[in-house]
């Protein structure tokens, strides 16, 4: 009879642990998924901002006799612009390249309608994402225009502001959902742990009544919480990156290439899983340690 009771208790304990691990894994999977979406949304936002280019034009007056001198001057200006703080990437566009681009855009294959070197050479500049901010764009343009040799700087500031505002709005929504999922993770994991500790409330109180110290009672529960949190985090992360690998392989894009961000995401998920599990275990156990025996029947 005692053996059957022990077996029943072991099965119930095993079932309880499995339920807690699955709950932790599912919650952390959703939390990690929101983290991946947030990371990639930020990267994609930066990529779009880098496509909003600024054009810095050299002087239009051009004399073929001074071509070597002008080419040297433009090369020096190009190098200087590449070193400017707001500049992410710069591309030099010669007069010949500008003429070819104009022909292509107008669908013209002949040189009959174009004079030689009708368009000035220029530099196409992609700004760093932080300088696409409407509050900083004017400052970036002034820095570029101040470079000797640059006659004019043009950009579609209205488009930049609209894109920046829309991307910022989207990122705020994603960040908001991520915080919401973090709160849900805390609540759901806490509830799962509380139910598990609730089933052991009589064991906790019995140990306390026979003289066991609170620290001694807490220790095995904390160790178990760390193990359950780690296992749940590991399962959640394996499911997360398995799904993410399948998704990226299907669309043919690896999205974020910076492995450091994946590393910090893994640490965050592991940290959240273990921290919430341990904290919930301590709080729930401490509650029964402070309660009276009669309260155990009404908790």
From TrEMBL:
Keywords: Cell cycle, Cell division, Cell inner membrane, Cell membrane, Membrane, Transmembrane, Transmembrane helix. One of its GO terms (cellular component) is plasma membrane. Residues 177-292 form the ABC3 transporter permease C-terminal domain. GO terms for biological process: cell division. The keyword Cell cycle applies. InterPro entries: ABC3_permease_C, FtsX, FtsX_ECD. It is found in: Cell inner membrane; Cell membrane. It comes from the Bacteria. Required for cell division and gliding motility. This is Cell division protein FtsX. It comes from Chryseobacterium taichungense. The lineage of its organism: Bacteria, Pseudomonadati, Bacteroidota, Flavobacteriia, Flavobacteriales.
């Amino acid at each position: 009879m005692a053996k059957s009771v022990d077996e029943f208790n072991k099965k119930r304990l095993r079932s309880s642990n499995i339920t807690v691990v699955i709950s932790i894994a599912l919650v952390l999977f959703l939390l990690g998924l929101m983290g991946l979406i947030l990371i990639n949304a930020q990267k994609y936002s930066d990529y779009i901002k880098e496509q909003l280019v600024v054009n810095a034009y050299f002087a239009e007056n051009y004399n073929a006799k001074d071509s070597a001198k002008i080419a040297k001057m433009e090369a020096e200006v190009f190098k200087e612009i590449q070193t400017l703080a707001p500049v992410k990437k710069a591309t030099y566009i010669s007069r010949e390249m500008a003429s070819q681009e104009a022909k292509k855009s107008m669908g013209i294959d002949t040189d009959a309608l174009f004079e030689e070197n009708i368009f000035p050479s220029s530099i196409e500049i992609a700004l760093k994402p932080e300088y696409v901010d409407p509050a900083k764009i004017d400052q970036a343009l002034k820095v570029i225009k101040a470079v000797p040799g640059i006659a004019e700087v043009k950009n579609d500031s209205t488009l930049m502001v609209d894109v920046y505002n829309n991307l910022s709005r989207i990122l705020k929504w994603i960040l908001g959902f991520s915080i919401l999922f973090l709160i849900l993770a805390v609540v759901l994991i806490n509830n799962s742990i509380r139910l598990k500790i609730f089933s052991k409330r009589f064991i906790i109180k019995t140990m306390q009544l026979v003289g066991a110290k609170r620290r001694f009672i807490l220790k095995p529960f904390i160790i178990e919480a760390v193990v359950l949190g780690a296992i749940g985090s590991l399962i959640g992360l394996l499911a997360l990156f398995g799904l993410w690998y399948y998704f990226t392989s299907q669309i043919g894009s690896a999205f974020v290439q910076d492995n450091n961000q994946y590393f910090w995401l893994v640490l965050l998920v592991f940290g959240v899983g273990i921290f919430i599990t341990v904290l919930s275990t301590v709080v729930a156990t401490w509650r029964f340690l402070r309660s009276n025996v009669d309260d155990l029947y009404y908790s």
